[in-house]
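Notebook entry, structure prediction.
Reason for the run: the old model in the group folder had no record of what sequence produced it. Starting over properly, with the input documented here first.
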Amino acid sequence: MTEEKKKIVFIVNPKAGITPKSKVVIELLAGNLIPSSRFIPEVVFTERAGHATEIVRDALNLGADIVVASGGDGTVNEVARAMVNTGVPMGILPAGSGNGLARCLGISINYALALRTIIRGNTKLMDVATVNDMLFTSIAGIGFDAHVAQKFSETYIRGMIAYMQITLKEFSSYKPQTYHLTIDGISMEKHALMIVFANSDQFGFNTRIAPDAKVDDGFLDICVIKKMPASQLINFGYHMMTGTPAKSGYAEYFRGKEITVSTAASPLMNIDGEPKIMESPVKISIKPLALCVIVP
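New structure, fully documented this time:
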């Protein structure tokens, strides 16, 4: 009996990372890395913010068996919004700057290897989380990381060097803020450079801000980062690259499922790399095993 072909829809953000990567997707498909005997591929390009979510909904209504996000964490976020609790597998072709969720899941940054992972089709269920009902799959943060995300969104330059340049430029003038934090009913006050709510272990670029975070444990790791002297900033970056930020002396960790954080002003949040202004208090919660993803 012949196995029915699976409909696989690639949603490509042409503005993510380096634009030619979008063309690489088409070339690999044309080169038969996606076997036509097993799959019916379709490639759709996004045209605006939020478009990926619309495309996914249409694709699912038309019977898509697999949906692939080709872009950065922002594109993955938009695709995931429409796939939560559907059971339809989501693949990732990392084409962004940091590719935090892909790296956390062990998905290769090499397009050909990532495509082979999708073809093999191994899946797992992972947690997602919400900030005031706005979904995130990898990282949400408040404070300096959101400030850097905002500055990064205003530049056309992409990649880790641009992130580092913005971080170094903005660090000295950025003032820590006081946050009222409640984690699973336990309240505390923290004066912090930033607070990160981690479902995955990293921002991207293998900068592991939450090295013990797991995407399928039903918890968020909460990382409270104190402002360090400017002379220690590079050292703290080294600790993130080696997965040892707690050893820096500037990182404090908690775990929880339901978190509320409030500040004096309406907070700017980093939601999977995208800056968003939220209303305070911010309510963050985990949704266990709500998203099916394709993994190596």
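Summary: Residues 152 and 163 are 7 Å apart (CA to CA).
The old model has been moved to the deprecated folder.
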